[in-house]
Amino acid sequence: MSLGRWGDVGVLALARVSMGAQLQVVGALGPLLIGGLVADWAALGTLIGTYSLAGVFVALPAGWLLARFGDRVVLLGGVGLMALGGVVLALAPDFTAALAGRLVSGVGGALLTIAGAKMVLDRFSGAAVALAMGMMLMAWPFGIGLALLVLPMLGQDWRTGLWLSAGFCSLAFVLVMLTVQGGGPQAATQRRMWLLREEWRPLIALGVVWAGYNASFAVAVGFTPAFLVAQGLSRAEAGALASLIGFSILPLQPMGGAIAERLGRPMLVCVLCLLGMVGALAATAAGAPAWLTLPAFGLLAAPPSSLIMAFAGRALSAESRAFGMGVHYTLFYLGLALLPPFAGFVRDLTGAPAAPLLTAAGFLAICVTALGVYAAAMRGRGAAA
Fold first, then answer.
1. What InterPro entries does UniProt report for this protein, alphabetically (predicted)?
2. What is the distance between the alpha carbons of residues 89 and 126, in angstroms, rounded to a whole number?
3. pTM of the full predicted structure?
4. pLDDT at 129 > cutoff 70
C-alpha cells in the first residue's frame, strides 16, 4: 500500500517520533530507575548514552548496507531492532540486560536515521527537500517531548513506561512494513572513500559542534526532570515542564535555518543561538522560572540544527560527501554516547542536581569555539562559511 512520497515522509516521521520517545524513556523515568534498574546517576547517563553508542560503528558502513540490501530492508531492519531492543529493556531484570536492550535499539535508531535521510533526499528535490527534511528533524524532539509529558503520568510504574515505548516502536515497524516502498540494491557508485586534505579540519570541527550541540540537548531533556524534582516539583509537573524543551524547538526547526540564510548571516545566527542556549541552561540551574527558560532553550536550539548540517555540506566536495557524512555522523554518535554519562558522573561527583545542566552549557561553549575553528578553516580555503 503506497501512500506517495509525502505519505512516506509522514510514516518515516512517525518512526522517528518513536525513536525520540525511546531515546528519552530512560531520562523521563530516571529517578524511578535509580536503585532499581540502575545503581546511580552515572549508570543512568550510561543507559541514556548507550542508545547512541551503536551509531559510532554503524554510521560509516550504513551507506554500504543501503547499496547492498536496498532502502526498505535497511529501514525495516532499523525499526525492527528498535522494537526488539525496547522489548529487551522492558524485560530487563538488571543493568546488564538493560544495557543490551539499549544497544540493540541504538543500532536500529542509527539505521533509521541514515536510511530515512537518504530516502527523503531520493524522493525530493529543490525547495521541497527543506520542508520534507524539516518534518524528519521535527519528529525526533517531538518524540522526546512526548515521552517527557506522558511517562511521568504513569506514577511509580516505570516498567509500564518501558513497555509503552517498545509498543510504539513496534507500531512504527508495522506501519513502515505496510506502507513505505524503498529502492532496491544499487551498484555502488565511484565515490572518494577519503577526504581531501583541506576537508578534514572544517569537518572535524563541525563534527565536534554537532556532537556537543545534540549531547547538550540530550542532557537537558534527560536530567532536567530530576533537577526540577529536587526543586520540589512533582514528577508529573517536572516532566511537563521539561517537555517544553522538545515542543518549543518545533515551530522554528523547519524554517529557522532558512531564515538565517536569507538574512545572510548564518554563522552569526548560529553562534548567538548557541550562546543563548548556554544562558538559558545557566539561568535554569540558578533557579530562574523554568516555564520561561526551558522554552527559550528549545526555541534557540531550532536554527542551529539545519545550519550546522548546511555548513557540513559546504565543507565537503561532491565526491567525498558520502564518506564525509559518515565521518560527521560517527562523531555525532560518539558525542551522544560519551557526553551524557560524563554529565551523570559530574552529578555523582558534586551531588548537585544542577550539575548536568551546567555541564551541558559547557558542551555548548566548546561548540562555539569549534565553530570558530571551522570558520577559520573555510576562510583559509577561500570559501564562505
1. MFS, MFS_dom, MFS_Efflux_Transporters, MFS_trans_sf
2. 41
3. 0.77
4. no
Integer Cα distance of 203 and 29 in angstroms: 36
C-alpha cell at 133: 527534511
Residue 12 has pLDDT above 70, yes or no: yes
pLDDT > 70? residue 318 = no
Say which residue, 96 or 189, is predicted with more confidence: 96
Side chain identity at residue 78, one-letter code: G
Angle at CA of residue 285, ends 159 and 306, nearest 5°: 75
Convert the pLDDT of each residue in 270-299 to its tens digit: 999 999 999 999 999 999 999 999 999 999
The mean predicted confidence, pLDDT, of the chain is 85
Q: What distance in Å separates the CA atoms of residue 233 and residue 135, rounded to the nearest whole number? A: 33
The Cα–Cα gap between 91 and 99 comes to 12
Q: Which three cell numbers stand for residue 381?
A: 580555503
- The end-to-end CA distance of the chain, in Å, is 43
Are residues 164 and 41 in contact, defined by beta-carbon separation less than 8 angstroms?
Answer: no
